[in-house]
Amino acid sequence: MEVHENPSNQHTDNASRLKAIIETAIDGIITIDGRGIVETVNPAAAHIFGYQPEEIVGQNVSMLMPEPDHSLHDKYLNNYHRTGVGQIIGKGREVLGKKKDGTVFPFLLSISEVNLHDKQIFTGVIHDITELKKTEAALRESESRINSIIQTAVDGIITIDTRGVIEMINPSACRLFGYDESEVIGRKINLLMPEPDRSLHDNYMHHYHETGEKRIIGIGREVSGLKKDGTIFPLYLSISEVILADRKVYTGFIHDITRQKVTEERLRRYAAELERSNRELQDFAYVSSHDLQEPLRKIQAFGDRLKMKEYENLSEQGKDYVDRMLNAANRMQNLINDLLTFSRVTSKSKPFVETDLNEIARDVISDLEIAIERSHATVEVGPLPVIQAEPTQLRQLLQNLISNAIKFRKDDVDPVVKVYGKEVQLKAHMTATPGDELVELHVEDNGIGFEEKYLDRIFNIFQRLEGQKYEGSGIGLAICRKIAIRHGGDITAKSKPGVGTHFIVTLAKTHLKE
């Protein structure tokens, strides 16, 4: 026996199911007739507009619209019926609705036209976007605030993509590097770097993308930047990596540390000069007040006794000798006191100029020609750099070191003196501040040498290790140290008795402008 489903039952089930969907939908659903009169409204739509369903059904749908749509809605419908062209039917768009309490709010409205066998109806689906619009507004406000911070920041801020191309640069960074925004957007970031970083930057980025090894991202460090006019300046750079929805970018924060670095260099040199000055002054004061004044006091004391007790027994010539001796002793006492006073005053030296150390070395060897010939010495000079210096002082420094190397030779070996230079960078990437780049002057000999435990003593004023065998006051190496410190460096030595001595003098290539 075959059972046939009753078509009327199936229709009832479909209608019930459809009604259940409409009644429970989250979005509002409203149907109107061709005149704009509401035929049905689901609970969600009634809730969205703040009405009970029965307050809306049978009313013109324009009751749910603010002006000007409220007054113009009938006109919209008539135009559609006449022309068949709709502003929203079959398209959907963002419009404004009006709640029962008068509140106006935004929603997405999509309208479909349904032609039944006996009439035409329109169904509108309403999606409340009030919270979405609030979120969008908050996001816009947040973006605006962040943009304001970036645009007014004191420090420079630059964003680049993974290829190193500049996407954003703020006004501070433009001022710092001396460019207009239009000159750098779309250009590679290495435009703002001196060598060697300019040529190596693509390698740095490739290395990071390959290995993930962070050398500066999330760490920050001091580097050098290059301005449009060619000036190199020191900056502190910190980089953050930002993952966007579809790509990765890097944001660099740039803090100009020119003033800080110059101050640090001034303080470093001032401290070194002060330490040397204090040490020399203490040594000099001790020698002057003790070693020199002690025999002078004896001359004065015995001279005074001679004048007091034996003066009448002396001939006129003898009396004249005693008077002259005492006057001379007093003058020497005054000279020593004046010398002590003078030693506390820093005399002004000549300004630094571009100085070719090769020329200085040639002049020194020429001056020492007789001593070199007499001792059968050989002086080998390698390439030396050009630096900012006081030529007279560097000539004195090299002359002291080379003449010392010849003087303190072994009796049975001809002296060989080697002079050469090396360039030193104290910290990678830093070349902008005076003192970042140094020059080392090396003077090596095959002479008598000395015990390195005496290293500190040999640079002290009037210090001598060899007694009376070699002539001199012992002030030469103290002068060398003073000259080296004044030129932003220092002096040290390596030595072994009977093997020879190797002096290393450091000098800054450039200096602070007074």
Automatic annotation (TrEMBL):
GO terms for molecular function: ATP binding; phosphorelay sensor kinase activity. Keywords: ATP-binding, Kinase, Nucleotide-binding, Phosphoprotein, Transferase. Its EC number is 2.7.13.3. It catalyses: ATP + protein L-histidine = ADP + protein N-phospho-L-histidine. One of its GO terms (biological process) is regulation of DNA-templated transcription. It comes from the Bacteria. The keyword ATP-binding applies. Residues 14-84, 142-212 form the PAS domain. PROSITE patterns: HIS_KIN (PS50109), PAC (PS50113), PAS (PS50112). SUPFAM superfamilies: ATPase domain of HSP90 chaperone/DNA topoisomerase II/histidine kinase (SSF55874), Homodimeric domain of signal transducing histidine kinase (SSF47384), PYP-like sensor domain (PAS domain) (SSF55785). Residues 287-511 form the Histidine kinase domain. SMART domains: HATPase_c (SM00387), HisKA (SM00388), PAS (SM00091). InterPro entries: HATPase_C_sf (IPR036890), HATPase_dom (IPR003594), His_kinase_dom (IPR005467), HisK_dim/P_dom (IPR003661), HisK_dim/P_sf (IPR036097), PAS (IPR000014), PAS-assoc_C (IPR000700), PAS-like_dom_sf (IPR035965). Pfam families: HATPase_c, HisKA, PAS. Residues 91-141, 219-269 form the PAC domain. Putative oxygen sensor; modulates the activity of FixJ, a transcriptional activator of nitrogen fixation fixK gene. FixL probably acts as a kinase that phosphorylates FixJ. NCBIfam families: sensory_box. This is Sensor protein FixL. It comes from Pontibacter ramchanderi.
